[in-house]
Design goal:
single chain, 226 residues, 3-stranded antiparallel beta sheet, 31% strand
């Protein structure tokens, strides 16, 4: 949409992965009026670079529900860092996953196609390849449930049998009992009141909010406080 509304759009994707090189080239090939400058770095460092890049107005975008992977405290720190990296005229657009029925959430994180399970089990593959460990992926199962008290989906890997795992590069070997859980990730869900609280505490002003028909998700447009 921005590419259609503006004569020229300058896009600065920020990611720690080198895959950014190929994806940036593909975007540039697909959109004639788009200029892409990839920043291979953390979000915080990349935003600090952009703060001093020029005096133009920037729209910072953090879509999907990735923000939910932060704990409340770490999320607040992240938002404060973004705020400090913004110029007065900049805007910030963020996607948030809302609190919803427990059944809906648990069905989504235990999907029948096994997409989330494959993503979760890939953690063990990465440990095997990067730390020379011997996790047998077939001996673990994906397990996720919604913790209503903490408003978060908790994601685990459950051991299917008693086993011993060695992580050679760390010089570690440890037993894992059958049904023992390895906590791999959290995905926090937000109420409207919590959204207003966390943005107020990080010195943002809510300009607008948009919801899907079921109010499962929302997009929030923010500016720095006056």
């Amino acid at each position: 949409i921005l590419e259609r509304l503006q004569k020229h759009v300058e896009y600065f994707p920020i990611d720690v992965s080198n895959i950014l090189k190929d994806s940036s080239k593909k975007l540039r090939d697909d959109y004639e009026n788009l200029r892409v400058t990839g920043i291979i770095d953390s979000y915080e460092s990349g935003l600090e670079f952009l703060k001093h890049y020029d005096q133009g107005n920037n729209l910072i975008v953090f879509l999907g529900s990735s923000f939910g992977n932060f704990s409340y405290e770490n999320g607040l720190t992240f938002l404060q860092k973004i705020n400090s990296s913004m110029k007065k005229s900049d805007l910030f657009l963020i996607g948030l996953d809302l609190v919803k029925d427990k059944t809906v959430l648990e069905r989504a994180y235990n999907d029948s196609q096994g997409v989330t399970a494959k993503f979760n089990l890939n953690v063990l593959s990465r440990i095997n390849s990067e730390l020379d460990s011997n996790f047998n992926i077939n001996k673990f199962a994906h397990h996720a449930f919604y913790n209503e008290y903490k408003n978060r989906v908790e994601i685990y890997l459950r051991s299917l049998e008693n086993q011993t795992v060695k992580i050679h590069k760390a010089g570690m070997a440890f037993p894992i009992k059958q049904d023992e859980l390895i906590h791999t990730e959290n995905s926090y869900k937000y109420t409207i009141s919590k959204i207003k609280e966390i943005f107020s505490m990080s010195s943002f002003q809510i300009k607008d909010m948009w919801f899907d028909e079921k109010r499962y998700f929302c997009l929030v447009l923010l500016s720095k406080n006056d």
